[in-house]
Amino acid sequence: MLLKRPSKKQIDELITLHKTCFNDGDFYIDFFMKNKLKKADCFVKIEMDGTISGALYARPTRFKSFNQIIKIPFITGVATHPQFRNRGIASFLLNEACDYYTRKNLPYVMLYPFNHDFYRKQKFQTVNYFYRPFDKFSNEENPLNFDNLVEKFNCIFPKNFTAEKLSITDFYACKKIYDRSLKTEPFFQIRTKSYFKMLLTEHLLDGGSGILIRYFGQPYSYLLFSDEGIREMLFPLKLSDDIFSLFSEIIPSLECPINFRSRSKDDIFNPVISSDLEYCMARICNINKAFKIASYDKSCEKKLCFNLDDTFIKIFVRNKKAFSVKLFKPKDLPRELSDVKDKNFIYIPTTKEELVAGLLGNVNFNPLYKNIFYVYNILMYEKY
């Protein structure tokens, strides 16, 4: 059930569940409850005696997709109390959340998984990818000391570049860098000033650090990192080759969105290859909405037909958008199949699990979608 106004007892149970499952400290849990829970949807599984046995948090997230603004809930955490594990509670909560967002006419839910294979079983598919621009790993006995990064950057940077430790007061400079770097991307997460401030506050309170890079004194690039490595890095895409060559001298390994690789090579944008790293995943909620907001390839046929397990869908495409989406139930299948054949539709049997990757730009691993959907990589860094 969606917990709209949790009682004091329920909040205490959620705090206990959070500590047990996520191993966060009191300071971070306090920050989460005060700053993030009130902005998130909280789904819970409640036992007969009133005990909360599981919880799912989903934060409304806005994206800019081909000049249209869409809302996609981002699942930031799913937790099951140890006492109630192996009872399918996580699957129950995921299904309940997806059913709720389907009724709300939202196209997808997204998440960053702790285990991609587990979430594939829950009908999610990977929809954006990262890569390693260089693949050099540090010796575990002598790990990189991030405290020395500022000094190292200032030693190797060319004239007029400077690096400094990032502070919470730099959130607006980071937002400007973020907006400038992503303005040409086809599909990216929108971040407001207040969100950026919360993101940096959360990151720094949770033991993270950051570096702000300036060029002629103006904000140019930033890095957010912790003991686990670099969490987020943004810089002008047209200079990515130069930036990577500098970073490779002092950072033992790096993962970043494949968007930077494609832009730096100045190639046709053909993002995903087999060696790329899986990142966020998505699951279809309202399929009608998903088809309507998708972007179709310029060579796409004007009439498409998708046959899913429980739904038969006719789509009419104009100017790379679906101007008409018609859904039919299985009982209508014989009549509609005959109509599709007579009117020269492109017929595609598929599943929602296969379809979500194509609708969100990753068609390379499924030849069914070649020349149907536009190819791109969602640019987002979210994990929680």
Q: Would you kindly provide a brief summary of this structure?
A:
The protein has helices spanning 8-22, 26-35, 89-103, 116-120, 149-156, 171-182, 193-205, 240-247, 258-265, 287-293, 333-342, 352-359; strands at 41-46, 52-65, 68-80, 108-111, 125-126, 129-131, 161-165, 187-189, 209-215, 218-226, 229-234, 256-257, 277-278, 281-284, 303-307, 312-318, 321-328, 346-349. The chain has 384 residues and is α+β, with helices and mostly antiparallel strands.
Element layout with pairings:
Layout: H1 8-22, H2 26-35, E1 41-46, E2 52-65, E3 68-80, H3 89-103, E4 108-111, H4 116-120, E5 125-126, E6 129-131, H5 149-156, E7 161-165, H6 171-182, E8 187-189, H7 193-205, E9 209-215, E10 218-226, E11 229-234, H8 240-247, E12 256-257, H9 258-265, E13 277-278, E14 281-284, H10 287-293, E15 303-307, E16 312-318, E17 321-328, H11 333-342, E18 346-349, H12 352-359
Parallel strand pairs: 3-4, 15-18
Antiparallel strand pairs: 1-2, 2-3, 2-8, 4-14, 5-14, 6-12, 6-13, 7-9, 9-10, 10-11, 15-16, 16-17
Helix pairs in contact: 6-7
